[in-house]
UniProtKB/TrEMBL annotation:
InterPro entries: DUF1552, TAT_signal. This is DUF1552 domain-containing protein. It comes from Stieleria maiorica.
Length: 425
């Protein structure tokens, strides 16, 4: 089928023999007379977070700027170095607690070692999804490749969003058509949920007239949350009867996927398809406190190796394991770079972050977090080296990411500005 001077609706599907096939974002979906924003492919954000950090001496280059010598880890994917920025000497201000800080990777909520009443805040991905997630079938995807049921994604109320841990189940949710009965049940649940919100809102308005100013302010915030939830429910109901995209199943899902490297590879493969079909624009993949990984030359569990105490044999095995993790991440970035859209590659339109709550897992140190930041239309090919003693705020990078999406927030968590040295291409 050939289209000539044709304007396609963003949600166009191809139908034939009872099959409905969704399309990815195409140039023909751009209006003939359009604003600058309308002529660009949608922008996305992906985070790959590690609960056990990366060994700093193997990751960070010795020189700063653009003319740095690749570190041992970076030397394994030199083809991608022009597409990414390495950041050292960064961390979340006011965050300590070792492993406890795992939940703050994308929130940067202040946490002390002795804080028994810690309450988290909204994560970067969920703030993005709150404002822009209604434009896709799935406002966000929260995933885990280690099987420990943890995620870096948190709601505005500080509740962790449980992750999807099965690559096969994720593929089915994204691309396998739901039976008619399932769609009908989902639609009924959505309608029921919206009626409940209406009832609760009416009761709350009645109550509001009897309350003081402080409580009325709390109810105003509540109404805002109710309205946002109603909008999400309405958007979800609209998607129920729209056909899912039809794609080929990745080879990585052809066999049983165990925890570790294989699961990480499978997750990345499905994530790339989700972005390419515009099924979701905000994705987090977390690798928590890992267990044993099947790799040649590795005999101990990931957690034990990360707590190496400078033992040479543990450091040798840790390098093998971390190189394998980074290789899968690099392959994912390459996939995004290979897909062309109207405004460049999929990578040009997707910010890809790799980081961890731990700078030194062996000493449970939350300073000097590992940070690789790729794509998104920024100028890359550099090492931004900050002070390893007095760290630069990583939330500044998060604020830059928000601004790149057109969300011009004044701040994010403990940010002080957008990130110094990170500029648009």
């Amino acid at each position: 089928m050939k289209f000539t001077n044709t304007k396609l609706d963003r949600r166009t599907v191809l139908r034939g023999s009872g099959l409905a096939v969704g399309l990815p974002f195409l140039d023909a979906m751009i209006p003939a007379v359009a604003t600058a924003a309308e002529t660009e492919s949608p922008r996305r954000f992906v985070s790959f977070s590690l609960g056990l950090g990366l060994h700093g001496p193997n990751l960070f280059p010795e020189e700063s700027g653009a003319d740095y010598t690749p570190s041992p880890y970076l030397a394994e994917f030199t083809d991608l170095l022009p597409d990414l920025t390495v950041c050292s000497g960064v961390s979340h201000p006011q965050v300590a607690g070792g492993h406890r800080a795992e939940g703050t990777i994308l929130t940067a909520a202040p946490l002390s070692r002795s804080d028994a009443n810690f309450r988290n805040s909204i994560s970067l991905d969920q703030l993005m999804a709150k404002h822009l997630g209604d434009q896709t079938r799935f406002p966000s995807l929260v995933l885990n490749a280690s099987g420990d049921n943890s995620s870096p994604s948190y709601t505005e109320n500080g509740a962790m969003i449980p992750p999807e841990m099965s690559p096969s189940r994720l593929f089915e949710q994204l691309f396998v058509p739901d039976p008619p009965k399932t769609r009908q049940q989902d639609s009924q649940r959505m309608r029921h949920g919206r009626r409940v919100m209406d009832l609760v809102a009416e009761e709350a308005k009645t109550l509001q007239r009897t309350l003081g100013a402080g409580d009325r302010d709390k109810l105003d915030s509540y109404f805002t949350a109710v309205n946002e939830l109603e909008k999400r429910l309405a958007a979800n109901q609209d998607w129920i009867n729209r056909p899912k995209p039809t794609v080929s199943k990745p080879k990585s899902l052809a066999q049983s996927v165990a925890d570790g490297i294989e699961k990480q590879r499978a997750m990345f493969d499905v994530m790339a398809l989700a972005l390419q079909t515009d099924s979701s624009r905000f994705i987090t993949l977390h690798l928590g406190n890992g267990g044993k990984v099947e790799l040649d030359g590795v005999t101990e569990a990931h957690h034990a190796l990360s707590h190496h105490g400078q033992d040479e044999e543990k450091l040798r095995q840790l390098a093998i394991l971390e190189n394998a993790l980074l290789a899968e991440w690099a392959n994912f970035v390459r996939k995004l770079k290979s897909v062309q859209e109207s405004s460049g590659s999929l990578l040009d339109q997707t910010m890809v972050l790799l980081t961890s709550n731990l700078g030194n897992a062996s000493s449970h140190d939350n300073k000097n977090m590992p940070v690789l930041f790729a794509g998104g239309g920024f100028k890359h090919g550099q090492h931004l080296e900050f002070d390893t003693k007095n760290n630069y705020p990583l939330p500044n990078l998060y604020l830059s990411a928000l601004h790149r999406l057109g969300l011009h927030e004044d701040s994010f968590a403990t940010s002080t500005s957008t990130m110094t040295g990170l500029e648009l291409a």
